[in-house]
Every structure is written in C-alpha cells, then in structure tokens.
Amino acid sequence: MNFRHLGRSGLIVSQLAYGNWLTQSSSRSEETELACVRAALDAGITTFDTADVYADTRAEESLGRALKGERREGLEVLTKVFAPTGPGHNDLGLSRKHIRESIDNSLRRLGMDYVDVYQAHRFDPSTPLEETMTALADVVHSGKAHYIGVCEWTADQIRRGHALARELKVSLVSNQPQYSALWRVPEVEVMPACEELGIGQIVWSPLAQGVLTGKYLPGEQWPEGSRATDSNDGSEVLTPWLTDEVLGRVQQLRPIAADLGLSLAQLSLAWVLRHPGVSTAVLGASRPEQITDNAKALGVTLDAEVLGAIDAALGPVVSRDAAATAQSSPTDPAWRLA
Start and end of every NADP-dependent oxidoreductase domain (predicted)? Predict the structure, then answer.
C-alpha cells in the first residue's frame, strides 16, 4: 500500500480507502461486509470511510464490528453527518443539536472513542455556517474527532468554512467530492481552492459507479447481480452513465489499458491517483476480490501520451460543469421544514 498526507495536515492515509456505502446499502450479507473489510486490511488499506446515514445507520455498526480487535491507532476512520437519521425535524442538517447528538451516536455504533475525520456530508443553508463550524470545532476539542472535513461543498463554501475553522483553531483537512475520468467537475473550482488552502481530496466514485470497469456494454443487458440491476444498491446514481454514448466511449479505453497490462478499473484508479490533490480514493466492493484487484493500480504512472489518449477516448462525455457541485446540496434555506 502507498500512503499520502491528507492535504497539508499531519494525518497520513492509505491511497485507497474502503467505503461501505454500497456494501451496506444493498441486500448483501454481513459476511460479505466482513470479507470485504478483511480484504481491505490484507491489501494494506488503513483508511475506512462511512456515514451515519448509510444503510439507515447500520453501516457504522457493521464497520465497527468488522474492525473490532484491530489496533485503533493503526486505522484512520472517517464518518459523516448531515442526512436524516430519524423522523424528527432536528434529525438532519448541520445544526449544533444534530451535530452534537450525531457524533455520540456514530461513536456508539462504531464502538469507538473517536473518529479521525468527522465530515459535513453536504452544505446546510438552513443553519448559520458559524453555528456549524463551532459545533464541529467542539467535537474536535472534546476529543471525539481529530480533524474535520466536508463533502461536496463548493469552493466558496470551503473557503468560508476553512476561515472559520482557523479562527476556532481546528483543522479542516479534507473535502470529499465525486471524481473520476468521467466526472471532472472538482477540477474546475474546488480542487484549486483546496490546493491553495492545503485541503486534501478524499474522492468517491473513482470508477463512476462501476461504469469505468467496462462491465456495462452498449446495447446489451446489464450483467446479472450488478449495481445497475439492484434498486437497493444506489442504481439511481449510476443511471446517467448508462447511455450507449458513454459506454461506447469507455470501451475505447480497453486498448489503452491493455497496452499497460492493466484492467479498465486499474487504469481508471491510476488516472484518479495521478492528481496531486487526491489524498485517497474511496473504493466500494461487492466482492473482496475486487479490492485485491483494484489495489494493483497503486504505483502505476501514466505518462502524458496515455493521459492524452484517455482524454481523446472519453471526449464529449466527460462532465466538467462546476455548477454541479452546488446542485448536490439543498439550496432553499427552508429545506428542513419542507
């Protein structure tokens, strides 16, 4: 396993992280989750990403059980707060009340005394940013998290949050955006702002929900048991990629990968990890062998000719609209009352 600093912080993370959103949000068994975590540990992965909302809070419990008995100091465990975890009007968002209650509930479910990074899962326009950042700072000052991070915030939101964090003497060290060879939205505004501020990227969906593995072929039925056929497995996130134009372009990457002795998944992960702002890429898995195979992308160097060939192959299907980041969070300050 290779390791990098998380931004300009002192925290070191594995270049590949294991995330259990899809593993635990699907109908897969607890045994599958345990096997995937074990495969991650065997591959040298030390960074584990989850969230309180995944699988209706069950994902944190499952990850905690899977990591039980591991040396806590040798792991970097990340979780998130924002999305609804109960029926009440204060069971969501980034209010002081929700943050303070959510960190205690997350630690209970994980069976841990602290998390390494506590992340604001989206931006909350219904709560003053000062309230949110003060509450997150209190989580750090109380010893329940070492660092704070954000997920899918815009460049402006990150700048404002970072400035407040400095005033409160806590480290906002990470941003977690969607990022892949097909989804390059963060490159436009978010990554440059984070580079300036010393914030590292913990990227999710580096394989574009599995599309960049090449298993979905244009004009053919989706493979049985794949994410595209499982309504409990985040298939709605995958749907926009499942067009003949996108899938056809992805198939043009095959000879590029073959010339390098790589699978499409390994090529796509190497493409993400070549960015100096990326500290770690979060991998999901439906089978433990996927983690073992994907770890072979580590240490692969893609030269300018290969990068140019990837750009030419994907061409017009690459997403670069910076406005897409803002669209991932609520925009109406009254959204929690709706």
Answer: 16-313
